[in-house]
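ok so i was messing around last nite and threw this chain in just to see what happens. nothing serious, just curious
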Amino acid sequence: MSNLRDTAMTSKAWPFEEARRLLKRYEKAPPEKGYVLFETGYGPSGLPHIGTFGEVLRTTMIRRAFEVISDIPTKLICFSDDLDGMRKVPGNVPNQEELAEHLQKPLTSVPDPFGTHDSFGDHNNAMLQRFLDTFGFEYDFYSAKSFYQSGQFDEILLRCAERYDDLMAIMLKSLREERQQTYSIFLPIHPETGRVLYVPMKHVDGRDGTVTFDDTEGREWTLPVTGGKVKLQWKPDFGARWAALGVDFEMYGKEHATNEKIYDAICRTLGARPPNHFSYELFLDDQGQKISKSSGNGISIDEWLSYASTESLSYFMYQKPKTAKRLFFDVIPKAMDEYHQQLRAYAGQDDKGRLNNPVFHIHGHDVPTSHMVVPFAMLLNLASVSGAEEKDKLWGFIQRYAPDATPEKNPDMDQAAAFAVSYYNDFVKPARKFRVPSDMEREALEALRADLAGYDGPVDDEALQSIVYAVGRDRFDPLRQWFTALYEVLLGASQGPRFGGFIALYGVEETVALIDKALAGGLVST
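result:
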């Protein structure tokens, strides 16, 4: 373990870089609370989406890296801001007219449009925990409603009242003049309507811990800041929560990065040390727009898991967190194949290589073995040419290519075959567009057909690739024009697999028949 720790102290993998920065926080003495606290936040204004998952996963990766380089215990909190007022009705939920009647009420006071939980906030909290549990995360769930109402936040809320002027001075610097006139760090929850009020405070009593304000109808109220009667605006809440819990690390999207100084100043004013930060880039949908849980664009957790493994999603999340990434269905095949490539590489790597390998950060010390004998992208092409509607049809080709493979011995292969059929039918099949070959391409395909028809050598990827290469080398410059022609004429796609491997998997005779069909115009008609 000591050798691994020494290697981890110089690893360039980003989770280890962040873990080393965090360790410096306690180089003089361990935390008084007895553990290092990681936190992730969730705003349950819409159904949990893949970005939320990514935040928890990446935080877990840093936590796992920290545990390699330090013996200090760790803890992860997933905090849901379910006392936040519902500002708008999400566009991807039922019973929207009913929800519209509850605008500005805390999410845990809004009826559940799905009819399964006590409130909309409770429903979304349950969805969050369900998909976090699916991935086996170790975390403690915190609800803002419970945090405020149980008294756990009271000490900091009273301190906010005592230091109200100092906190307001921090906030007012960041606001336009018009907003300054009505702003308060406190948002009272109306005793009668239950709505979160954005109104100025007439008086804040730091000694009694109360706030006095007029509601929207001009009636004056005085409420204690404790017991869930009042909540903090979201920026002060960030820093106050850090102070109350003793948070050591929190990551968030780049939209929060401009507010870091505000969060930190709030935390310091309340007598605590701000946590280490990590700002990640956003995920984009197929149109290049930021994905949003309220609009429901991009891919959901359930959608990804309909077409690929949980590990492939984790692999995608590991890659370049500081770079904005397009997160749409067409990234799935590459993520699947690259994940298994890294699994295969891991077995032969030394400690340095393993700690830099994404699969270590996905699985920790328990990295599995890949049993994928055929790449996922190849399965998609196989499903395309064979018209597979069930995975069993793919297994017929797989077992001819790899006779020792079985669904029982190769469960990841079996799972991938099922995913490939679903992905092919939903995405590849509707987008296929075959074309007729040009005269030169036709002549090359006829030559390839003749070579394959007369081939009696081993059904081997490299041997068959040599035949394909030789046919193209004599006719195309650059050679990629030949492979593009093979993909577009035979597979109905602009790109495809290493073609020798495809022939070995699909079969030499079957490929000859496929070329015959293409030359006869039969593929274009489909």
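not much to say yet. The chain has four domains: 2-176+231-283, 285-363, 376-431, 439-519.
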